[in-house]
Batch of 4 targets.
Target 1
Amino acid sequence: MTSLQSELGEEEGIAEELAESQRAISIAEFFEKNKHMLGFDSGARGLVTAVKEAVDNALDACEEAGIPPDIYVEIQEQGDYYRLIVEDNGPGITKEQIPKIFGKLLYGSRFHKREQNRGQQGIGISAAVLYSQLTSGKPAEITSRTQGGDEAEYFELIIDTDQNEPEIDVEETTTWERPHGTRIEMEMEANMRARQQLHDYIKHTAVVNPHARIELREPNDHFKYERATDQLPAETEEIRPHPHGVELGTLIKMLDATDSYSVSGFMQGEFTRVGQKTADDVIDSLKDRHYGRELAWQPPEEKKKRDYKAFLEQAVSNKGADATSQFATNVADVVSGRERVSHQDVVEIVDNVADGVEDDHDVTFGSTVRENAVDAVWGLVTGTAEGEDEDAPQEYRARDLYQMIDEATTSRKDDAGIKGLADRIAAKLVREDGHRDRFTYDELAEFVRKSAEDTEEYDDVTFGETARENVLERLWAIGRTVPDDAPDVSEIAGDRDTASELLEAMRETDIIAPPTDCLAPITDELVEAGLKKEFDADFYAASTRDASVHGGDPFIVEAGLAYGGDVEAENKATVMRFANRVPLVYQRGACATTDVVKSINWRNYGLDQPGGSGIPNGPVVIMVHVASTNVPFTSESKDAVANVPEMESEIELAIREAARDLKSYLNKRRSMQQRREKQNKLATILPEMAEKLTEVTGRDELVIDDSIARIMNNVLVEREVEDGTVKVVVENNSDTNADVDVTDIVSVEPQDTNGAQVVEMDGEWFVKWSETVSSGEEATLEYSVDGDAEFDISVEGVEDELLTVNA
Ligand SMILES: Nc1ncnc2c1ncn2[C@@H]1O[C@H](COP(=O)(O)OP(=O)(O)OP(=O)(O)O)[C@@H](O)[C@H]1O
């Protein structure tokens, strides 16, 4: 095999030779070679993708301008080529923008917006132009007329792939009958093998965009989807990113770019849902991570109170007896009244009391006096005061820790073991004077780990993972956030570790979900309506979740189910996927939506699922819509949603919500089916038994008309007519109340109708009566008729399987 080395020659300068062949690649050149990444991998698919890009843009543009979309798509056969025409009634595109939009990849208005749009990257339509010029050699033709413009602009252009810039062949003004809008014509090498996908795309687009009129004209076919509503989707607002889910690189970029000096200003200015309070919480959490916390200890018990006083009095000199005594007493009172105090707590107590005494006695407690007082108290709290034993600092802390460990470990540990652990941790916490017991979480974790290991080795007492974690959490919980200022923005931006601490602080702080006015979900009602429009099923369910966040972008997941009726029963369920109201027709297997559908145990919801995983079988359509300001697609061709855990979990919850309704429906249907079977059996057996009984006993024939209703606990409706009096009796044998609407249709005019509603139509009288009949009760509707009459009854409000009508 020839090596690169031998090809290039042994001599020096290989790097230089290689360097000569290095050059930048324009994005257009890159995609020219990698058009499959944009969904243009074959002629069949290319045509569908081009239609999709143009129609998505048309819908986006119309909605943005508040215009109900009117979209016309035509595909003409031209020898070996196809000509694609897409026309919309949107706001149009200005003359200056047309060349860039169609003749430059990565040029668009949506990439930097946090708002729900179909388009995201600024690649779609220029990629279609690129594909068209590559396969047909012809320029794209664009006509656009802006709202209020007298004339339209007409362009013929291609993309100069070396430069990724438009190359304009023709530019002229023209007339166009549309008052505003855009028309694109492109010729491309294509075929109609993907007709099904094209139809699915157009049809499903119509389902989730009921406000759009869409027409598709093909060489041999013509489809029209009329507008079902003039109501455009709710207008969306652009938002700032949400602190949950921003990535470190993005955060550093934002820190570099912001004008804010303080973290508080940065948080409130650059993120959504952050006010003063939330910013303060994030800052505290950042400080805890950056500086650690100051541990707070129990002050020595009550009898030592006089020691405080004595020490404090010593610390204060020349302030007069009254002021000194008041100061010492008050500080001693406050400290001994606290459950725990940290160094900073002592500083605050001393300052507060000193300020009060200054006011009362007209003396000044300067910083030296205050510092002396703080040292005196802190020395007493931590065992370093004058006269204390050398071991006191460790003993004090160990005593406190002993209690904590004892409470934090559930199973009673050997006393010596607890003491051993407390001693070892305490030893590590004792530092030189002036340390203030300030430790980071990681330091404390290390102390606990090492001390627990030593205790196991030397005292033979084991503290497992949970016990260690509990001890650590308690220790961290007795720590107080330090008084130091948080690092400022430039400091954080310049230090990746601190930026990472801020990121963690942002993620750990409770922050309300992002606003949803940047999103336009379809809503559960319209999801159901959309399914009803397309599938003639027996049952529909839909759910819309609350907004969540991924990567700082909010998203909402919706799911819908259609079951039974005319839905295909032989095969696996149909899974319909949508992102920002765009149907996803390719790469089903690579989509998070499909993965989630497969991972659900559908048997729990009453569907057949061989092996307990995978797409369920049966007459069911599963629809999932992900709406986001930034849908995480697996590739630029936007065919499949990536496996983002937050999104997968919401997809699952949305599907499960709808599936729960399906389960109730199927359970009910099953129990109704069982009732029907039981009733049918009874209807055969009962008359036979009655006949046998009459035969054996020789008594009169038994009347069994009402027996089935009573055995089955049904609502029984009967009519008796005697001497012109009609009685309709509703007998409720069930164990719940029944709200029934009974309509008796009579061939002669009824009299004395006792408040029933009577309507005459074509010589028939409808006697309607609504009643709530309690369980075990009966109600009677009475009226009279003159002469012979024919009757027909209709009962509503009770399911057929729970009703027996003998009338
Ligand atoms: N029919 C149209 N009417 C008005 N503006 C349009 C139309 N088509 C495209 N645009 C504008 O051109 C921009 C670029 O469109 P393009 O399809 O290249 O990218 P996109 O839709 O922003 O994102 P994506 O690459 O994800 O499709 C859009 O952002 C929009 O501002």
Target 2
Amino acid sequence: MSLFNPETVTCNGETFSIYLTQQELEERVAELGDELSSKYEGKNPIFIGVLNGAYIFLSDLMRQVDIPCEVDFLKLSSYGDEKVSSGEVTDLKDIDADIEDRHVILVEDIVDTGLSMNYLVDKLQKKNPESIATVTLLHKTEATHHDVQLDYVGFEIPTLFVLGYGLDYAQEGRNLAQIYILDSDPKE
Ligand SMILES: O=P(O)(O)OC[C@H]1O[C@H](OP(=O)(O)OP(=O)(O)O)[C@H](O)[C@@H]1O
Ligand code: HPA
């Protein structure tokens, strides 16, 4: 267990409470790893992680996958330092790998409005992969209003701002080992 597992945390002046424990995260990530290992046996998939948020989930997920696989990263930004999407995606880094005819597993930490995932699937499709599957640790089901293809979802969560395990609030809180949820609705 991490030594950094408080029940509540304060980040940028706002209070968050525990929502998903380290054990719940570990168990679900292991299940997803098993599913992917079976599905992609013999296919040498390439995991593509979306920086920054997905880096912790992706590193844990890949260590639960027991078949040959590769990894690359791209970087987007749409939230800046805010709790609501700017509504625009900014490309900050593309992948280096050639994914033509490859089996791609696109890994996000969270699908909220769906804007980023929708944008990314379109962007990667243009590189002619053999297949694209999407994985997200968290899905804010009721907040998603863009069309998204979601193949593997860790947890469906309510429309409340979350923090930890890679997810930030104005760049802080990514190093928390568990997932925390804002004590009041950010839209109120
Ligand atoms: O479904 P959406 O409304 O598009 O929200 C999801 C996106 O927002 C976050 O990225 P962010 O822009 O905050 O960058 P970060 O990963 O560096 O924190 C998250 O990592 C997803 O990429
Ligand atoms: O709830 C959230 N928390 C952190 N980052 C995010 N990016 C989209 N939604 C969220």
Target 3
Amino acid sequence: MARDTNGRDPSLYIELDRKQWRDLRQSMPMVLTENELESLVGLGEQVDLDEVADVYLPLSRLIHLRVAARQRLYAATSTFLGELQTSRQVPFVIGIAGSVAVGKSTTARVLAALLARWESHPKVDLVTTDGFLLPTKELERRGIMHRKGFPESYDRRGLLRFVTEVKSGAREVTAPVYSHLTYDRVPDVMHYIRQPDILIVEGLNVLQTGPTLMVSDLFDFSIYVDAKIRDIEKWYVSRFLQMRTTSFADPNSHFHSYAELTDAQATTAANDIWTSINRPNLIENILPTRPRATLVLRKDSDHSINRVRLRKL
Ligand SMILES: Nc1ncnc2c1ncn2[C@@H]1O[C@H](COP(=O)(O)OP(=O)(O)O)[C@@H](O)[C@H]1O
Ligand SMILES: CC(C)(COP(=O)(O)O)[C@@H](O)C(=O)NCCC(=O)O
């Protein structure tokens, strides 16, 4: 096999442990307080300020450098097009993918908060793809209610159109909103996106590709949040047990009947949903997209991120 000039096997990626990655923070200041961080961390997640310092601050620095580089690339195209196109800031789009219950939403929120502290790109918006799940009525009509989270359960064209409009500089673009409470799209409520500097799109399947253009084609940077399947399964079940006294306790929750389940019953119910929906989706659709990610954040069983893989080519 051909080797690089240092005698190593060629690779698209560089793998770093937490200490090596942490050193790439350089002089980035800590800009979050304990209280701010607490408000960003989701149920069952365990991010602390050390992890922000070691993992998220270097990441914020890397993305900041890449935002500037991307603008130079767009400027090159504008120079080429001359009068055919006026030069402008194009929103930088980040995709965040990974399994159900791996902690994507927390990663997305922490990153959004850090990126918004940069003077050159203070306006950061975050959209989750659950808003683009087809409404329950339509999922039922198609007989795919049990496939929620699988690629076919989304309005993929709508998602592509949405990100295209944001990148095109539209003054205001709307995204539909999903409710975990009603387990359906919320009628008449929209998320308004008004010319952000950075847009983060978080969801299970955002890194999927296909024969036609897909939202992944519009990403300037992508992150895959990764962990062992056995660990994610444990996190899913333990979060489900916790939800009996939080989300499910609300009488309006679609899952309210689960609130009364014993530990054993709730564990069985969570395992059933995991093995019939979330695990197959992870294996068939989500995991195969991991090689495509610019960055993989690898979590250990205690949720801590201890390894990072960066695409360098
Ligand atoms: N049934 C539910 N009721 C209320 N909130 C939920 C429910 N399922 C998931 N969530 C919340 O929705 C968010 C996304 O969860 P999920 O899709 O599992 O992705 P991740 O854990 O990777 O962020 C999390 O903040 C989670 O706590
Ligand atoms: C809403 C989800 C499909 C995730 O949506 P995403 O924002 O990742 O597109 C997922 O959290 C979900 O509810 N899955 C269905 C099976 C379950 O209840 O675990």
Target 4
Amino acid sequence: MTEIRLHNTKTRTKEVFVPLDPQNVRMYLCGPTVYDRAHLGNARPVVVFDVLFRLLRLVYGAAHVTYVRNFTDVDDKINATARARKEAGALGTLEELIRARTEETIAWYHADMDALGALRPTLEPRATDFIGAMIAMIAGLIESGHAYAKDGHVLFRVRSYTNYGALSGRSVDDMIAGARVEVAPFKEDPMDFVLWKPSDADLPGWDSPWGRGRPGWHIECSAMSYELLGASFDIHAGGIDLQFPHHENEIAQSCCAHPEGQFARYWLHNEMLQVEGKKMSKSLGNFFTVRDLLDKGIPGEVIRFVFLQTHYTKPMDWTAEKAAQAEATLRKWRALTAGIEPAPSAAPEVIAALADDLNTAGAIAELHALASDPARLLSSAQLMGLLEPAMGAWAAAPQVDLTAHTARLSDLRAAAMVSKDFAPVDAMKAALVAAGVEVRMSKAGVELLPGAGFDAAKLPPL
Ligand SMILES: Nc1ncnc2c1ncn2[C@@H]1O[C@H](COP(=O)(O)OP(=O)(O)OP(=O)(O)O)[C@@H](O)[C@H]1O
Ligand SMILES: [Zn+2]
């Protein structure tokens, strides 16, 4: 059996992955809060852990892997979005608007992640379907002294869990000093975090022993993972931005509520998609959505390929150049494998690269080396969710021939060298860029490449 090694954030080492039960390998990924379209950064964990899901299915059998990714459909950000719509004159009660917003966002999410070739997880629980389990878990935590109720709120008593901070490697005192912990009159200690909070009459709320209210975000994942995967399971994944406080809080809640279990044994964190060195995020406003790119004509498969060229533990940028190169490679491979049946199994070198802590960049290098064996190239690429027939419509579009434009631009440039008037060169270059062409001019000559988002109809006349 293929040995999989994974970098476990909990131990900060690469470890051999040994599941608790090879008949049912269990993985949980923190899913989206469904209040708006997913931005490109949100798609990174989906693609990265989709590759892990595919690898686990290969090694243990598709029927022996349970992959859970939740939808957080109760959250203040969702409420705020619905409230803004109501204030803008939308019809219906706030509750109806909230429901409509979450339904709409989940449908967008599915469409966008399907376009990236991500398999649907085995289970996609919605937080609102597990409120009873959350209330039960909170009640248990109060009973065992790990939580307390005050003024309609329930708080987790952080100092009651001695291992708090172990995942992110910080002490509670460091965290207080560094983090923006909220001081509130209902808290015994500023580090304590909310398990339950009261809801106004017009906000979604559920009856509980502490009054009508709603759960905090962290308890949602603890309750859903317990209900669906048990008190001990194999892998918990998410973005590194969730390591503290979200995952630290999940561990504290789950380990205190279920001391008989170990909660998650391997923690995997993807690094951030960045824009000029900063995390792409809604709050910074430096984001574009997956849908923006798809609408610009960038195939989902190209987005996926760009992600997989960087190891998941490294920060990365999205650039038009990376997209153009990915598109050229995929186009070449699709031409090579057209009409060919995939080989019965993926190449061992590709499997070995993926099994080595998801070395997707290494696996892509191996794919390049398989150009002489298209059947193997196909089966190996498909293991990574690439070259799937259903995702290839974009590549069937006729390949553009830019030779005439290349010759014209070269002529203009040669003429400009003599006349010293570069305006005609600049004008043509600008027109080509506007049509989505990547223009490369060097001493060696002129090179034109149809970039992602290329539109032949916009090409300048010759
Ligand atoms: N820039 C990014 N790069 C990679 N992963 C990210 C990035 N931003 C968010 N994520 C991940 O996306 C997933 C969904 O997160 P969540 O729904 O909390 O995002 P959000 O609140 O909409 O985004 P933001 O962090 O932009 O406010 C999480 O696993 C999170 O770690
Ligand atoms: Zn979570």
